[in-house]
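Bump. Still looking for Thioesterase family protein structure tokens.
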Amino acid sequence: MTKFDEATQAIRAEGNAYDVCLDPGYAIGGPLNGGYLMAVILRAAVDASPFEHPVSTTAQFLKAPAPGPAQVRVEPLKAGRTAAFARATLVQNGEAQIEGLITTATLRDAEPAYADEPTHDMPPIEECVKLPAPKPESGMTLNAQMDLFFDPPTIGWLKGRPTGRPESRAYFRMAEPQDPDPYVLALAVDALPPVVFSTGARGWAPTVDLTWHLRALPAPGWLTLLGGGRLVRDGWFDEEVEVRDSTGRLVAQSRQLARVGRG
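Sorry for the wait, here they are.
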């Protein structure tokens, strides 16, 4: 079991309730990363399902849960021959923190009938760069859990030179050696700095709603994250991320709605 597996494990308590312990190692300046929280919820939802993989997840972030004990309550809605549907709620101190609707199925390693090309050509990884290590007092513990090597223009905001377009692109892997799986992908779709940073915005940009789809089981090796947005307006922005595995296959795609950061 890797550190990530341990940090996201869900232990069945009774019925379809699962005890979890939210790990402070996945924080972004205090709040826990949304992708990490989805991975925790999905562990419980898949365990309660007759199928192996979370193929579609929609999560609404009602509150920002704190590190420590919590519970995931899974409510099966319907199960058929090829898919099952459930509601999963992350509860802490008696209050719902995240509501998720999850579709599970079992994916096979089939050849695609159609597959498009990446939305952007990434430079070789040796031409990409890492962000500076955050100061300990920043509370950015998430950075230590993963390796991200960025397409240089998309972190121009770091030196006051944002591109003016909502975008973020990077190579991704877990810091501790681990082949990517659906739970790692749940983290990966929310691992990039907010794309709105490249328009000049700064500060914590809380996710309100995030939907992602598992399209294939990833091959071992680096993942490529290609993020972009279409509209920044009235304090809101959207973010879309496509995730490709080391063979170039599309393995996950996501869309989220978030608030523009303040400060």
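The chain has a mean pLDDT of 95.

Edit: fixed formatting.
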